[in-house]
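Hi R.,

Here's the input for the norvaline complex you asked about:
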Amino acid sequence: EPGARLKTSLISLLDLSHESLDFALRLAAAVKRDRPRGRSAPTTRALDGRHVALLFDKPSLRTRATFEIAVHEIGGHVVVPAGDVALGARESLADVARNLERWVAAAVVRTFSQQRLVELAEAAPRLVVINALTDEEHPCQAVADYLTLGEHWGSLQGRTLAYVGDGNNVATSLVQAGLMLGVNVRVATPPGYELPEPVIAAASAVARHGATVTTTHDPYEAVERAHAVYTDVWASMGQESDAARRHADFAPFQVNEALMAAAGPGALFMHCLPAHRGDEVTDAVIDGPTSVVFDQAENRLHTQKALLLMLLAPEQCAC
Ligand code: CP
Ligand code: NVA
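And here is the predicted structure with norvaline in place:
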């Protein structure tokens, strides 16, 4: 890629300033509005002639499809190295990164440990690395989720989101972004599945507008008067062998009509998907009138387009 540019990557939401997170949501809303204009949308050529590599160590429908479409719609091209050569099985991760930085502007990476993304970024200082989910965080998901909430609520500050389930990657990014945006987040997990204490502390340190995170082992306490209820699978990718034990531990944390009733009539239902219907959520809830799960899925596209523009073509979006 010709030209030097300022190194920036999105490995954690904690990498973003409050201003850039606010801006990402505004820009995402703008590119969403412009999408019906097709090739006459203003950012159609923003990545002209540039490439973005997609490196996925784990399965994906939404993240992979929406990054491919986003890159294409802003004029770039994706490169998808085969899984067996992509992420450090055939040559070191550092060498993969040093090759990629000679060819592509950015690498969108889904892998296991967050530390692998840090190593990739450190080995290739000119490569923009974007976290497409690790065991620890899922930043692109959370940005899309708060765009969705902003659309439905009108504003974010002072609202309350209840997350019910595993203290996992999705929960971590929701807490980080929520506190940065002034949304109170309540997290209900079974004992032994809490969010790590350092996650709570680091997110609390960047809270704005008096937002707080509270934790409990009681899902009913978490959802009381909440404006939205969010859940995720009980066993994440890589935890399949633990699924039977988790199924038993999480059974009281199912989001069903009784739990949604406890939240109150207007409470939105959210899920990052894929959902295991009948486990963490019932059909009646995910297909119910306040479910916004496909709005979330749609907004993955718009928010990732905004993040790509901010990272790779800041001059095109007055970032
Ligand atoms: N929500 C989400 O990241 O979906 P995929 O795993 O299908 O990408
Ligand atoms: N927590 C889930 C999210 C999938 C998008 C997982 O990591 O498998």
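One thing worth noting: The chain has 13 helices and nine strands.

Cheers,
M.
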